[in-house]
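User: Quick one: structure for sequence A, then sequence B.

Assistant: Sequence A:
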Amino acid sequence: MPWKDVSLMTQRKEVVMLALLEGANRRELASRAGVSPKTLYKWLGRYREAGEAGLCDGSRRPHTSPQRTGAGVEEQLLALRDLHPAWGGRKLARRLSDLGVPEVPSPSTVTAILRRHGRLAQAERQAGGPWQRFEHPEPNLLWQMDFKGHVAHDRGRCHPLTVLDDHSRFNLCLAACDNEQAATVKERLIAVFRRYGLPRRMSMDNGPPWGGDASDYTALTVWLMQLGIAVTHSRPYHPQTQGKDERFHRTLKAEVLQARRFADNAQAQCVFDQWRQIYNCERPHEALGMAVPITRYRPSPVSYPEVLAEPEYLETDRVYKVGRDGTVELKGRRIRIGKAFVGQRVALRPTATEAVWKVWFMRFEIAELDLREQQSAQA
């Protein structure tokens, strides 16, 4: 099953919430989840009848009752705080409202209740002034990808790989990896692409495995371009250009990694899967007006191709196969393209300036060559 690494309840809840969004392609969602459309519609019916409890295989009786007393609301608040000790008054109030709790107190009252019961940490304080944010207008226009700094466990180290949708802050991947090698990343990305489709662009920093030689291309980024995904890199020493994923990393550290030690990566992945479902489907996000990320996300309509397409170029292009040294020969000169493109076909297109050529791979312009500079360098 495509989603076999995710718990059954997590799988059902996520696909149901995505299916309830306006314009959702339910047949495509069912296919990507590895279930029949009939099964998905059954889940939807249960969810409408009994909420999350209806997705269980056992009793469909709701876990909570809307007819709770004021004292019951306070008990629920404290229990929710114990489950999520890093959440403040605004998140807790919104989550209680999302759960259907009646007469939810205001965020300031929630904070007062926490303080009265000794649940308010000394370091908690109100957020600072407004922060100017930029986000893409639709899901899947940009995904940010990075490794969270590795953490030790009893059998070695865990390298958390994270992928975040820029528009919705929906976490597409939170993987406990054994290493930070390209093959590991590719394996995880294939699973993500099969589940959510392909983004238009992905952004990452300049380090390995996605930043390489002077051309800034690696075998991994060339593979992404073969899928039709544009690749961009953050500016060196400017992590803010990966700001949403960096912010996600801080939340991951505060709510999951802090003061915790895993036995191995299997245990880490189990914890990651449980928390990812909370982050995407339950945890109110201030940058989203206290909505949860899944309400703003839509799977991409562009499905993952199991077979890569061959490059196609214009009839007027000069097409070359990149040699084992990462170069092509043009007018008697060896022109460096980059070792990441070894064995690939690239196209050279002339410009209005006779000595200047553009280099294209698939639909992407990857370099500009000035033969005058090449001649000067070889002299």
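Sequence B:
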Amino acid sequence: MIAINRISSVNQDFLSLITELDRELVERYDENQADLDKNNVIGSTRNIVIAYKNQIPIGCGCYRLIENDKVEVKRIYVCKTFRGRGISKMILQELEKWALEEGFKTAVLETGKKQLEAINLYIKSNYFQIENFSPYIGNEMSVCMRKELIG
């Protein structure tokens, strides 16, 4: 059974998972990833979810405030051995639910063109592609998406 836990500050499980994510992104994007890394800083977000199987962290995601009623979904990741089981969808749904509970109406995100599995997840979750927002404007490797959150 997979448990999705909300946490209110950056913890070691989250840091370990995003370290794995960053390694994987470097494998996919080589030297291009260095330009994007500066946009992956989480800061002091308090809206993090971690997926656990038998108390072992296997996936994560978070969101951060962009505007009064808009959040940016970030750092969604599932360990390779647990992919294909719907865990990323569970993480995304929990983040959207949490954002709605806090009164947010819109979610945006950025992913890379080489992350087809992520793009497919977002399309299946009713996100649609938009023009790249700052700081991704002009970055040909970025795909930005948006979803209106409905309660």
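The chain has one domain: 2-148. The longest helix spans residues 12-29.

User: Thanks, that's what I needed.
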